[in-house]
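Class prep. Protein, please:
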Amino acid sequence: MDFVRWGIIGCGNVTEVKSGPALQKAEGSALVAVMRRNGDLARDYAERHGVPRWYDDADRLIEDPEVDAVYVATPPSSHMEYVLKAASAGKPVYVEKPMAMNEAECRTMVEACEAANVPLFVAYYRRKQPRFLKVKELIEQGAIGEVRSVATVQFAPPPTSDARESWRLQPEIGGGGLFPDLASHSLDLLDYLLGPIGSVSGHATNQGGRYAAEDTVTASYVFESGAHGVGSWCFEAGVAEDRNEIVGTRGKIEYATFRNDPVRLTTSAGTEEWRIEQPMHVQQPLIQSIVDELRGTGGPCPSTGRTALRTNRVMDAILETYYRK
């Protein structure tokens, strides 16, 4: 494939700045079609972003002969449906995170794409952002020695009344609440930085009673490498917190998942900091790696269906008892 012509299914808010312009600005890439069930909104998006064609039917976009690859940017409840259709059409597919409603759906998607010999990529875009590549570089260079443990803390105030109407708080659409929507980024990053998580357990509750989904989650896990991890997420907090701390035999690394805080390395020699700004279009580095892989000019992309399936597996284990009730 010399050039990648993209079609977006679900051109909502996430595509306005994070990803849509990135599909247009990546080298060897163009955005040629968009789809939204509301045709007026699809047409408006196309006109504002200079996209040649728009649809209100996903099948028509997937079948468009001038669409080489499909980006699925709908809520998780429809990810599997559209990925399977793209695979059936023989088109590479890039799907938003979390990859699907649960591990079982992820596995179905991976197997369908592999059977069709179709690449499957997932929008865990932090795997290619410079700030997190710096964390990975420090770990691989042995700056903190052998990794022993990691702790993640993410707190946020409760959502406003308007936000409580969002699909992100409706488990039947999002596969849970804010935990799978936000914590998935942190857990996927840990998979990227430290390798796969082996055993995992967790507790999830709803303490605020504002909606049906979980709002407070704690978890513990052991990586296949032997490192231990703990995480605490609370979306009913009076303060905001975003902190990850990786501890090794020679020091520790601190970084934030969402805030643009500096990467901080502390050893016996003292503390160093790196303040690395994120790209304007945060998905562009990952999208460029996808385009390069599809064109055969680089790659591979570090975020695939196989890696994202592992993140869903971990989240399923953490949330199992809450949703089993």
